[in-house]
């Protein structure tokens, strides 16, 4: 055994002392005395050895001297059985027999000690007075050894076994009959005595309880209301009883599968009647279940529960509810109890609302009204639903827009007459939504921002039902505005260093339209210099919320313009250069919705040389010219003639030039043009490829010069830089007449370079 190995005796002690793989080893060195020394250890006799068979244990003691052979001392043991111990129990095949029934008793015992021995086993069982031994029913069961005897004497069962050395079960079995005089429900305890003559005896016992005779079950089912309305609750009662006096119903089980169309009312199940109460009472997955233990009286008991008639059931169609009551006795078939109910309609109730597709429509826009209603009572009935809607002033019905949406029944009347919508439905027995839809147009004449409320009236043919008046309100809004913008300048031919005033004008062109935001931007081009503090605005309120000049850009911002009045942003610039093509100023006017507008205006600044040319008043031959009222006879230099296109030489602005003259540019004779009027050719300098900037007629300068003098002597001195910077050429006044047109310098006579 572990840790039992030790050495005893004088020194020296063993230099080695161990147990390894079931082998004991001890080693001593240099023993020179004659004292006794010992090696001691313990072992355990295993359960596997055979009882009575000797076990020899041999040791080898060697002094490692060839002259002394090893010593082999032995020890012998003989294993014997352990003392056994008995364990016994008693069972009966029916602990609750009926009066007159037989029961079987079984007395079972065994030795519980492995390799133990029971020298003798005696069994004794004395039957109680309420039991009667069944003759010839005694027997023994189990392996050898068999009992020496099994007998019954004066109501006492006796058995005796010889020596038992195993642990197997053995039994003494016999039958007894419950006497008719036994008291029902009173336990009969049967005790056996099992002893092994050594240990205290075992006294197993078992009780039986005589039971009643088989009962007979009777059941019925009732309902509180055979014609409930949809949604109403009804109460079912399943009653049963035992009809046999002193009979017993071993178990009573009640089941009721609630049919479709009925819904169990939560927590409504209960039992009624004397004890015993049901051991199980529940509703699970639509099934009522109740279970009673044995019932030995003849009193009535009931299971009660409520159900609600669902809204979806068909009115007038019977719903049959079946209960099954079973006493779990194969000789008694289950009792089935049927009870019908016939659902009826409930009183309906209406719910309605009115909706509009757009609560803030623009003037002139169409909107859609939807009157929606439904019954709110499941299984209720609405009779003769009538809907009326008087379209208010300010709205105009859109022809053929009226429609009904929803399940059947469809309306029996659906019309619009004299601005009034009328719809009628027959009886409605569901809770589905139905809608009446129609469109109206917001009239242009209504006041923007003033609410228009449209009310529908819904009647039901029921004096107890209130009239429903759902409403929907709209607030007309402005239409989307549209922007128009122009740009003008007070002087299209200013002198270098002069100030000119620009005016950017805009307005909303849509009556009852709204521009949520208008932003004006004007990037002042090169050649012009903003005149400090000259920016201002004109026009009706609202005033601009932003008005500034920043980094060479004029910026103005307006919010929410709802009229069609003209407003202007005005500022001044100083002319700092005179480019040949003029200076074009473009503004950007944006309402954040429509594409930005870009009104432009071009000026042609004059130099001192331009001013030296004598003026010749024009004699307009075409009084139809509507767009040059500002051109005075002494100022024929106006470069902006939008009516004169490059390909149209018939521009009436040149009264001396007849429509057929441009086709003969080398014609020297033109009596209307005098040689002392050299300013007339200033307008043709606009080149044909750039008509969009200055919009000048496509009259070539050579044509005009040859008309001024019979023998052309004018020559192009040099074209000025595009930027409008001053040029270094100088003209001699005495040598001839010089003038500048569109950045080109002309000289009549000769020229001289300085």
From TrEMBL:
<feature type="region of interest" description="Disordered">
    <location>
        <begin position="592"/>
        <end position="703"/>
    </location>
</feature>
<dbReference type="InterPro" id="IPR047589">
    <property type="entry name" value="DUF11_rpt"/>
</dbReference>
<keyword id="KW-0572">Peptidoglycan-anchor</keyword>
<keyword id="KW-0134">Cell wall</keyword>
<feature type="domain" description="Gram-positive cocci surface proteins LPxTG">
    <location>
        <begin position="720"/>
        <end position="754"/>
    </location>
</feature>
<dbReference type="InterPro" id="IPR026466">
    <property type="entry name" value="Fim_isopep_form_D2_dom"/>
</dbReference>
<dbReference type="Pfam" id="PF01345">
    <property type="entry name" value="DUF11"/>
</dbReference>
<dbReference type="InterPro" id="IPR051172">
    <property type="entry name" value="Chlamydia_OmcB"/>
</dbReference>
<feature type="transmembrane region" description="Helical">
    <location>
        <begin position="729"/>
        <end position="748"/>
    </location>
</feature>
<dbReference type="InterPro" id="IPR019931">
    <property type="entry name" value="LPXTG_anchor"/>
</dbReference>
<dbReference type="Pfam" id="PF00746">
    <property type="entry name" value="Gram_pos_anchor"/>
</dbReference>
<dbReference type="InterPro" id="IPR008966">
    <property type="entry name" value="Adhesion_dom_sf"/>
</dbReference>
<keyword id="KW-0964">Secreted</keyword>
<feature type="compositionally biased region" description="Basic and acidic residues">
    <location>
        <begin position="606"/>
        <end position="703"/>
    </location>
</feature>
<protein>
    <recommendedName>
        <fullName>Gram-positive cocci surface proteins LPxTG domain-containing protein</fullName>
    </recommendedName>
</protein>
<keyword id="KW-0812">Transmembrane</keyword>
<keyword id="KW-0472">Membrane</keyword>
<dbReference type="InterPro" id="IPR001434">
    <property type="entry name" value="OmcB-like_DUF11"/>
</dbReference>
<keyword id="KW-1133">Transmembrane helix</keyword>
<keyword id="KW-0732">Signal</keyword>
């Amino acid at each position: 055994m572990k840790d039992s190995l030790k050495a005893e005796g004088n020194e020296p002690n063993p230099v080695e002392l161990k147990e390894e793989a079931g082998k004991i080893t001890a080693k001593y060195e240099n023993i020179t005395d004659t004292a006794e020394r010992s090696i001691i250890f313990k072992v355990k006799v295993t359960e596997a050895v055979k009882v009575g068979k000797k076990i020899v244990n041999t040791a080898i003691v060697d002094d490692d001297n060839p002259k002394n052979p090893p010593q082999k001392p032995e020890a012998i043991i003989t294993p014997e059985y352990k003392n056994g111990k008995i364990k016994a129990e008693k069972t009966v095949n029916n602990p609750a027999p009926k009066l007159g029934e037989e029961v079987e008793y079984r007395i079972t015992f065994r030795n519980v000690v492995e390799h133990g021995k029971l020298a003798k086993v005696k069994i004794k069982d004395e039957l109680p007075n309420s039991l009667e031994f069944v003759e010839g029913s005694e027997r023994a069961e189990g392996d050898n050894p068999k009992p020496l005897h099994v007998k019954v004497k004066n109501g006492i069962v006796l058995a005796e076994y010889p020596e038992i050395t195993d642990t197997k079960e053995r039994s003494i079995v016999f039958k007894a009959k419950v006497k008719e005089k036994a008291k029902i429900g009173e336990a009969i305890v049967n005790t056996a005595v099992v002893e092994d003559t050594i240990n205290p005896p075992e006294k197993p016992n078992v009780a039986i309880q005589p039971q009643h005779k088989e009962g007979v079950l009777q059941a019925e089912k009732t309902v509180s209301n055979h014609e409930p309305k949809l949604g109403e609750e009804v109460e079912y009662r399943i009653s049963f009883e035992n009809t046999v006096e002193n009979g017993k119903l071993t178990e009573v089980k009640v089941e009721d599968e609630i049919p479709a169309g009925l819904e169990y009312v939560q927590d409504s199940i209960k039992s009624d009647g004397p004890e015993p109460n049901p051991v199980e009472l529940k509703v699970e997955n639509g099934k009522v279940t109740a279970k009673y233990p044995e019932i030995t009286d003849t009193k009535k008991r009931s299971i009660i529960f409520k159900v609600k008639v669902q809204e979806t059931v068909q009115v007038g169609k019977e719903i049959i509810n079946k209960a099954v009551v079973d006493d779990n006795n194969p000789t008694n078939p289950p009792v089935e109890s049927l009870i019908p109910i016939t659902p009826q309609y409930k009183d309906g109730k209406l719910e309605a609302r009115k909706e509009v597709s757009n609560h803030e429509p623009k003037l002139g826009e169409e909107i859609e009204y939807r009157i929606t209603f439904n019954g709110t009572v499941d299984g209720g009935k609405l009779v003769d639903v009538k809907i009326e809607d008087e379209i208010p002033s300010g709205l105009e019905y859109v022809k053929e827009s009226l429609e009904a949406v929803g399940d059947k029944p469809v309306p029996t009347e659906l019309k619009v007459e004299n601005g009034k919508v009328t719809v009628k439905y027959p009886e409605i027995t569901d809770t589905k939504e139905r809608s009446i839809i129609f469109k109206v147009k917001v009239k242009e004449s209504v006041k923007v921002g003033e609410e228009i409320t449209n009310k529908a009236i819904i009647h039901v043919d029921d004096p107890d039902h209130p009239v429903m008046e759902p409403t929907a309100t709209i607030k007309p809004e402005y239409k989307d505005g549209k922007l128009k913008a122009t740009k003008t300048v007070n002087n299209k031919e200013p002198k270098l260093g002069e100030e000119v005033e620009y005016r950017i004008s805009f307005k909303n062109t849509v009556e009852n339209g709204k521009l949520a935001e208008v932003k004006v931007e004007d990037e002042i081009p090169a050649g012009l210099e903003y005149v400090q503090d000259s920016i201002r605005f004109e026009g009706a309120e609202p005033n601009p919320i932003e008005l500034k000049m920043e980094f060479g850009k004029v910026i103005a911002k307006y919010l929410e313009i709802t009229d069609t009045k003209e407003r202007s942003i005005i500022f001044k610039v100083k002319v700092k250069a005179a480019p040949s093509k003029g200076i074009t100023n473009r503004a950007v006017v944006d309402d954040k919705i429509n594409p930005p507008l870009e009104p432009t205006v071009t000026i042609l600044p004059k130099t001192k040389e331009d001013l030296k040319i004598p003026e010749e008043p024009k004699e307009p031959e075409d009084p139809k010219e509507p767009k040059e009222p500002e051109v005075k006879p002494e100022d024929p230099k106006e470069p902006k003639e939008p009516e004169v296109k490059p390909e149209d030489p018939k521009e009436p602005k040149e009264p001396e030039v007849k429509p057929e003259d441009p086709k003969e540019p080398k014609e020297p004779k033109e009596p209307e043009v005098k040689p002392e009027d050299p300013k007339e050719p200033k307008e043709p300098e606009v080149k044909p490829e750039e008509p969009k900037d200055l919009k000048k007629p496509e009259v070539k300068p050579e044509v005009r010069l040859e008309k001024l003098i019979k023998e052309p002597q004018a020559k192009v001195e040099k074209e000025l830089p595009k930027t409008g910077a001053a040029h270094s050429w100088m003209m001699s006044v005495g040598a001839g007449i010089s003038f500048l047109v569109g950045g080109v310098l002309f000289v009549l006579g000769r020229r001289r370079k300085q």
